[in-house]
Amino acid sequence: MTRARVGIYPGTFDPLHNGHMDVIRRATCLVDRLIVGCAVNAGKEPLFSLDDRVAMIRAEVNALNAGSGGNGTRIDVVPFDNLLVHFCEQQGAEIVIRGLRAVSDFEFEFQMAANNKRLAPRIETVFLMASENCQWISSRFVKEIHMLNGDISSFVSAQVLARLDLRRGRA
């Protein structure tokens, strides 16, 4: 019997946007089980609490797990507050999936992958280039545009937009 390939797609996801969902959908083609690891990452001063971010991700991936848009790969959402390689070991994952939007992302991601490889040689990092229609989306821009009353409905799901509106007192 073949061992299941377990991958982790880590991030802060503050908030989850269509670019993240694009990577999640595409990553399901590479692994048998995908864990979306939602990082505490207090250094980024997230707008949403860890519990809120995990709830947003779970709501979005439920449709993929139910088969509408997924390919049968199980997707789990797990919060974590430790070193990524330790989280991978705890979850039995050997693949880290990272999205790249532009060349500017590559240097940081390359350094992180090299450090992770040094700490845990059995863990491979796989980079997925952002799809053409998602290359310019970032959580930082989503939050900034929303804060300034711009229309972000093409960047995030209706559920995430509603949570942003509620958080900003617009509901």
Question: Could you walk me through the main structural features you see in this protein, from its secondary elements to its overall organization?
Answer:
With 171 residues, the protein is an alpha/beta fold. The protein has a single domain (6-167), classed as 3-Layer(aba) Sandwich (Rossmann fold). 41% of the residues lie in helices and 19% in strands. It is built from six helices and five strands, in the order βαβαβαβαβαα. Strands 3-2-1-4-5 form a five-stranded parallel sheet, with helices on both faces. The N and C termini lie far apart (51 Å). The model has no long low-confidence stretch (mean pLDDT 91).
Tell me briefly what this model is.
By secondary structure, the protein is α/β, with parallel strands linked by helices. The chain is 41% helix and 19% strand. The chain starts with 5 loop residues before the first strand and ends with a helix.
What is the strand and helix layout of this fold?
Elements: E1 6-11, H1 18-27, E2 33-39, H2 50-65, E3 74-80, H3 84-91, E4 95-100, H4 103-119, E5 124-129, H5 139-147, H6 158-167
Question: Key features?
Answer:
single chain; 171 residues; alpha/beta; Rossmann fold; five-stranded parallel β-sheet; 6 helices; 5 strands; 19% strand; globular
String of helices and strands = EHEHEHEHEHH
Largest sheet properties: 5 strands, parallel
**Overall CATH class:** Alpha Beta
Poorly predicted tracts of residues: none
How does the helix and strand content classify structurally? alpha/beta
In CATH, the architecture is 3-Layer(aba) Sandwich
Number of E-state strands = 5
Strand numbers in spatial order across the main sheet: 3-2-1-4-5
